[in-house]
Amino acid sequence: MIANALDAALGIDAPSEDMITGVLDTVQPTLEYLGTIAFAISGALVAGRKRMDISGVVVLGAIVAVGGGTIRDVLLDREVFWVVDPAFLAVGVITALLSIPAFHIASVRLKRVYWLVQAFDAFGMALFVVAGTNIAIDAGANQVAAAAIGVISGIGGGIIRDVLAAEIPTVMVGGRLYLTAALAGAIVYLGLLQFEIAAVYVLWIPIIIILTLRYVSLRFGIGLPTFAIERDDDPE
To answer: Where are the domains of the chain?
Structure first.
């Protein structure tokens, strides 16, 4: 409120929702590139854990890198972002390839791979949730649809990665805050658009919330209740 009062005294107009989304549109490519890199690294790490060859590392890293954004664009009936700008796909491929010598030199052991995958996955998810929600709003989606598309954009790459690696997607198991964190970030982003605050806060607060929820969940084992049916090893 102090900032708004100061702006009013100086004759500066408070930022409107359109102004905020306009500012965020200018950083949209940066968000997508950073998210692409993060997801490509997470895909390459999973490929290494599964002992895939170089082609497997490239394919998994690249597909994961652009997977969530691809689903987002198909749902919004817009041109797929990496088709319009193939540099995104190239960044995914190059990042996956560079991950091989980088993690070899760093002597990354299998027991550390899980945490590294989760770290890069969380970063990529946070960036794509905000970017996806913003794109959906620009495309004319209502707030419910925008939140859903933002979440799908954020978790889509991770789901594709786990399916291709023959694992149950992380979003569905473990009782950790994964989809919940993505949804919280999308809702907070949409909520902040309703207030007259600087675009930098609208951008970074949801990202920080998503990363914080993921860290707290993984670090302290906090999550949703797990539904389990006891096995009957001796059915009659």
So the answer is: 15-220
